[in-house]
Amino acid sequence: MRVACIVIPHLQTRADKRTMPDTDASYDCEVFSQVVDGFSAISDRVEAALGIAYVRLDGLEKLYGGEAQLLKALLDTIPQGLGLRVGVANGKFPAFVAASSSTGMTTVPADAPGFLAPYAVDWLPVPEAVRDGLNRFGLHTLGSVAALQEGQLLDQFGLDGRRAWRLCRGIDDSPVIPLKREEPIVECLSLPFHTTSLQILRAAVDTLLRRAYANPRMRGRCPGRADLECAVSDAPPWTHTIHFKENILALERAAFIVNHQVEGNPPYAPVEAVRLVLSDFTTAMGVQLSLLSTPHADRQRRLLEAERCLRFRMQGRHALYRVVTVAPWHPAPERRALQIPLDPAGKDAIKPLALPIPVAVREGPNRQPLAVRLERQWCPVARIDDRWSFDLWWLPEPLTRTYYRMSPGDGRQLTVFRNHRDNGWYRQGA
């Protein structure tokens, strides 16, 4: 079994000592994850722990024109400046010794026992009691252990002694255990309009987290990482990664942490769409669950059951929605609140309320409305009760409007506005 061992010394040292600060740990895990992803793009037989990776080579060299070209392809996937060391051998242990004890790339020769002979028995991946016993017997190097008979070590140390003897002889048939890669949970959402509003972004994040936590794959598990990506206007995507330092089983707690992180480092441009990726899942162990449901939880459960029953009768259309107020001060009514499906499993987009409706208007000399077409007939304007304007020219989608609140003469009140951007007339939705 031909194996390449790649060691990144400073990451391996930190992983062994477990003394790195949280910020360094997050950065190092991110870097090493990129390294492993690069290896996995070439070989599906990659075993890794922080700072060290084993890649099985046999069978792949023909695809790359030889072992040297295969190794070059692997190393080309690694970011520059990591000071890595590489060992290549027929087995994981000799490859590890070659990588850890030298700089650059080292290939173990055919005489593996001769290569390993000068190294101390402390290199052996066997119980500490076995290593201490070998040192007490004066067997301080791998070569001195390899010179003994296999039965002598078996009698003294049992199966661990046999394994130590085989490793000293360069025999290591332990397999490369491939990484278990689990597909992340990905949710996407387009916003109804480009915005820099943190309130709208918070509503989008809450909606995406509700969808993710409603996924059956989330049952009994906690995400260890959340990646948030925002498509922004005329700029590269804004991205932010959150590493959870605790088991996050509750949706509300996850929403609080993610939104707090976003508010501390908001997007730098108007947001068009949001993408959430949850990954690094762990089993929800050590999390105390409440035995008694709260009135709020019971109410939400009953509403969700009612929504699903109604949706069945309405051929899949959503019937119940949450209304989230995001900007009650906004001069454009459709920007003040959002309509979000109550069922988190629903993939409907969030929608604004009170959307403008195009309407036909007869204008006077000063472009004021004289008559409005309602229900296929023209209704003259009896009087104009109020008039106001605003010009939000700095928005990604500028809004310049003149509003009229008027009475058509039948006791009703009607609000229409002229959009100065397209010179069209609209009736403001209720």
Task: Give a written overview of the molecule.
With 430 residues, the protein is α+β, with helices and mostly antiparallel strands. The chain has three domains: 3-168, 2-Layer Sandwich (Alpha-Beta Plaits), CATH 3.30.70; 185-288, Dna Ligase, domain 1 (2-Layer Sandwich); 357-427, no CATH class. It is 32% helix and 27% strand. It is built from 13 helices and 22 strands. The strands form six sheets. Strands 2-3-1-4-5 form a five-stranded mixed beta sheet. A five-stranded antiparallel beta sheet has the order 15-22-21-20-19, with no helix packed on it. It has a four-stranded antiparallel beta sheet with strand order 6-10-8-9, covered by helices on one side. Helix 5 links the parallel strand 4 (85-89) and strand 5. Helix 9 (150-157) packs antiparallel against helix 10 and helix 11 packs antiparallel against helix 12. The longest helix has 19 residues, at 22-40. The protein is elongated and about 110 Å long. It starts with a strand and ends with a strand.
Brief descriptors of the model:
alpha+beta, Dna Ligase, domain 1, elongated, 32% helix, 13 helices, Alpha-Beta Plaits, 430 residues
Write the topology of this structure.
Layout: E1 3-7, H1 9-17, H2 22-40, E2 46-49, E3 52-56, H3 61-64, H4 67-76, E4 85-89, H5 92-100, E5 104-107, H6 112-116, H7 128-136, H8 142-146, H9 150-157, H10 159-168, E6 185-195, H11 198-214, E7 221-222, E8 225-232, E9 238-243, H12 251-264, E10 271-279, E11 282-283, H13 295-313, E12 321-325, E13 337-341, E14 351-352, E15 357-358, E16 361-363, E17 369-374, E18 377-380, E19 383-392, E20 399-407, E21 414-419, E22 424-427
Parallel strand pairs: 4-5
Antiparallel strand pairs: 1-3, 1-4, 2-3, 6-10, 7-11, 8-9, 8-10, 12-13, 13-14, 15-22, 16-17, 17-18, 19-20, 20-21, 21-22
Helix pairs in contact: 9-10, 11-12
